[in-house]
Specification:
The longest helix has 14 residues. It is built from 1 helix and 8 strands; from the N terminus they run H-E-E-E-E-E-E-E-E. The protein is elongated, with a radius of gyration of 19 Å. Helix content is 7%, strand content 55%.
């Protein structure tokens, strides 16, 4: 078993010697976020929505910088069923910066990659009274998170699965209102 694992690691290392070229990825996808505060996200529910964004990959090589942004359109109210396109009353502009790296390059057109990004999420639209619950009427203007995930580049197409871990609270003076979320995006890389 150890020999097989060692062989896979050596093969993966030799395949990843090629570099990722700088470029731009334009993507869109679906998102589901939640907070551990049950006033914000009821138990067993999530805030579903969609997003569109762009990420620039800078510096050629297996380790590169990523600068990007996303527009996220979701709901301030959680739901049990995945309603990605209904009742969108909460919009976020997210600025992202960090590092991307190739895990394995199978060929010039097939790369498995990952990333670690910091993000600042600016609230661009929300209901005037927040959740309309005492203590949850005022959202912070922005909140932060750390994003990581796995991606695959197939020719000019990108597919990414990301997880964002919330660092700062979204609601003013309310602990445990950090948003954690998962996104699935597809895009074009050129």
């Amino acid at each position: 078993m150890k020999r097989i694992l060692l062989l896979i690691m050596l093969l993966g290392g030799s395949l990843s010697l090629y570099s990722q070229s700088p470029g731009l990825s334009v993507h869109t996808g679906l998102t589901a976020i939640k907070s551990s505060d049950h006033n914000v996200t009821e138990k067993g529910q999530m805030h579903y929505g969609w997003l569109a964004g762009v990420d620039a990959r800078l510096v050629e090589g297996n380790l590169y910088f990523i600068i990007g942004g996303q527009y996220i359109n979701t709901s301030i109210y959680s739901s049990k069923s995945p309603e990605f396109f209904k009742n969108r009353d909460f919009s976020i502009l997210s600025g992202r910066f960090g590092l991307g790296f190739n895990i394995v390059r199978f060929s010039n057109d097939f790369v498995l990659r990952s990333k670690v990004l910091g993000s600042i999420n600016f609230v661009s639209k929300s209901p005037e009274k927040g959740l309309d619950i005492d203590g949850y009427r005022e959202l912070n203007n922005s909140f932060m998170g750390v994003t990581s995930g796995l991606g695959c580049t197939l020719g000019i197409f990108d597919i990414d699965l990301e997880y964002q871990y919330g660092i700062f609270n979204a609601f003013y003076k309310q602990p445990d209102t950090k948003f954690n979320g998962i996104t699935l995006t597809a895009g074009v890389y050129f």
